[in-house]
User: What shape does this take?
Amino acid sequence: MSILQKLVLASGSPRRIELLQQAGIEPDRILPADVDETPLRAEHPRSLAKRLAKEKAEKALTSLKSEEDHAPAFILAADTVVAVGRRILPKADTIDDAVNCLGLLSGRSHRVYSGICLITPGGKLRQRLVETRVRFKRLPREEIDAYIASGEWRGKAGGYAVQGLAGSFVVKLVGSYTNVVGLPLYESVALLSGEGFKAHRNWHVARP
Assistant: This one.
């Protein structure tokens, strides 16, 4: 394919943008696709992550097609879900949300699922699901309160950001670290490359 390939990221998440940039990929456009993230009745966390990623990609495609100067592009979307067993933890919007999440995660193992969805310029839809197991140390209330005061938890699935202060909570992590941050890089780049996107085209201008 030509060097005129375009990549649309169907997310406004600064973490996902930074992770793609870390891999040398600069999205040509950021097109957040807001969808209702309420789980369906008895929906498994992994099913929720896949469904929402697909809905975000499809919504971004619909938005692009409505534009007069629409040109085919690769559309990449993702959704990350934190769960203890089948219990899906919310994206913490309030202090109570965050305190409840951290209390539940304290001293326990949980799983982080990310659904990735890619729609190619030709309309092909590809999906991946990535799972990472994380174990937290036991969190005393004073440490939870200190983390709450930091504000890092706001808007984060499970009420924490592993790339920040909460990295000190992690006793063990099995699987993709970038998945826990919000976008599994290996799987995302492999998905793009497998569909002909030149994921390494900017590596010659990378800076240490």
User: Anything to note?
Assistant: Strands lie at 7-9, 29-30, 74-84, 87-88, 109-119, 125-136, 170-174. The helical segments are 14-22, 45-65, 95-105, 141-150, 177-181, 185-194. The radius of gyration is 18 Å. The longest strand covers residues 125-136.
